[in-house]
Amino acid sequence: MPKVIYLQSDGERTELDVASGTSLMLAATGHGVSGVVGDCGGVMSCATCHVVVEDAFAAQLPPPSETESQMLDYTAMPREPHSRLACQIVMTDALDGICVRIADPQL
To answer: Which of 14, 57, 83, 97 has a CA positioned 20 to 30 A from the CA of residue 2?
Structure first.
């Protein structure tokens, strides 16, 4: 099963096995990863699952949709070049080892 690494702003790391087809937001909230809120349940209406994707994996992801890009303009932490909403990153075997830094603050 592919793995994801969530990094907190204080350097704490959480590594999880995530089934292919599962969003990184659902994996984080389902395992109690601190900082990923996901208030809207993954429908891109809250932006409380803001993460920054490590450079090595950013190019492997499809570009953000127009809606995701607009939501990233209203996140609590300023948007960065590899900012994404974790609800829009769906785990695949190709993303095994992906590392995302959880935005701080999220709200």
So the answer is: 83
Q: Residue 67 is inside which H or E element, if any?
A: helix 66-72
List domains and CATH numbers for the chain. Answer: 3-102 (3.10.20.30)
Confidence of residue 94 (pLDDT cuts 50, 70, 90): very high
- β-sheet bridge partners, residue 83: 52
Predicted local distance difference test score (pLDDT) of residue 31: 97
**CA 92 from centre of chain:** 14
Residue by residue, DSSP assigns 76-97 as SSPP-TTEEEGGG-B--GGGTT
Question: Chain-centre distance of CA 30, in angstroms?
Answer: 13
The answer to whether the CB of 3 falls within 8 A of the CB of 97 is yes
- Local structure of residue 102 (DSSP, 8 states): E
